[in-house]
Design brief:
By secondary structure, the protein is α+β, with helices and mostly antiparallel strands. The protein has 14 helices and ten strands. 33% of the residues are buried.
Length: 339
């Protein structure tokens, strides 16, 4: 999308409907690297973020132009600004140039693939391509990818554990440990914790049913977050799937189903790389959680995790505030039994 440098910070006035029955309202439309932002004209608050690759034009060639975020019934946007329309159409031309065109000569297809691969190798070094895709993907798309990944994990582990008291405890835990909007417990196969795109975390049943204190499950989440070394879950996912998946996300707004499946298998098969002890202790201090219970959960003898025990930032002291109240900790421990 950086090919549209002449449209940097482009804005226009449009008419937006939240759904087919809603009244049209005047909005400000802003063109970004990979999304269209629809905002209120006065307050400036964002009303919607549309993925440019997923957008469609409902009336090609007609004026004013009418756009929608997808083929599904719902929002619509009416534009008369010729410059904005030209910019959006140019984006779609670029996207279309990356899509396959069945029916052409095999040699033409092979030549196009070679040309695209060569251009990607020349102008988009694999690491830079992954970084760019991870950086500009809107939060709505991250949430969608995270949910697809969770659905794939659920086919391998069983449906997430659920009970009203347990889910309430998870909501309290997610607020106690910022960085996760949603935490889900998987009943089988997963050990420890994993971070998924869209501020979603999954934890294994072993983190809540064996320990006698919620500091253990908090420790798994803190360790996983610290072990990411500043990389977002989406960047970690794209790094594992490779630049081809990142290019597809940039050009089509989606990841291949096969890639989501393979990454789900990798999350279950491979344990995260343990973070350095010094950095992990700082993360425990920042979170206000004792590191000792987590250390003994990793190694009951304490021999291999002596640093986490001896340098516990709250050794011999109560944590500044509990990870979970006792009643909610009991409810969380029972979440996979449905009680």
């Amino acid at each position: 999308m950086t090919a549209l440098s002449e449209y940097d910070r482009l804005e226009a006035v449009g008419l937006w409907r939240a759904d087919p029955e809603a009244q049209r309202r005047e909005v400000i439309v802003s063109l970004g690297d990979a999304s269209l932002v629809i905002s209120e004209t006065k307050a400036g608050a964002a009303l919607a973020h549309w993925s440019l690759p997923a957008m469609i034009r409902r009336n090609p060639g007609a004026h004013p132009a009418i756009y929608a975020p997808s083929d599904e019934p719902g929002e619509s946007l009416e534009l008369e600004d010729e410059v904005m329309i030209a910019a959006i159409e140019k984006v779609h031309v670029i996207i279309e140039s990356h899509r396959p065109h069945p029916g052409r000569l095999r040699s033409f297809l092979i030549g196009g693939v070679v040309l695209c691969v060569g251009a990607a190798a020349l102008f988009w070094l694999p690491g830079a391509l992954v970084d760019h895709a991870a950086r500009i993907t809107p939060m709505a798309k991250r949430i969608e990818i995270g949910r697809k990944l969770l659905a794939e994990l659920s086919t391998m582990t069983g449906q997430p554990c659920a009970s009203p008291p347990g889910e309430q405890a998870l909501a309290v835990l997610s607020k106690r440990l910022p960085g996760h909007d949603t935490i889900v417990v998987l009943p089988e196969a997963l050990k420890g914790a994993r971070l998924l795109p869209g501020k979603l975390a999954v934890i294994g049943r072993n983190t809540i049913e064996g320990p006698d204190t919620p500091e253990v499950v908090a420790g798994y989440l803190i360790s996983t977050e610290d072990g990411a070394a500043g990389q977002s879950p989406l960047k970690q996912m794209l790094g594992a799937l490779g630049p081809a998946a990142a290019l597809r996300l940039l050009t089509t707004g989606n990841l291949p189903d096969s890639g989501i499946t393979s990454y789900a298998e990798q999350l279950l098969r491979e344990q995260p790389t343990p973070p350095a002890t010094d950095g992990l202790l700082r993360a425990f201090r920042t979170a206000g959680v004792s590191s000792t219970p987590y250390a003994y959960a990793l190694d009951p003898t304490g021999e291999t995790v002596l640093g986490l025990i001896e340098a516990d930032p709250f050794k011999g002291e109560p944590s500044p505030r509990p990870v979970l109240p006792d009643a909610q900790w009991v409810a969380l421990q029972d979440i996979c039994t449905g009680r």
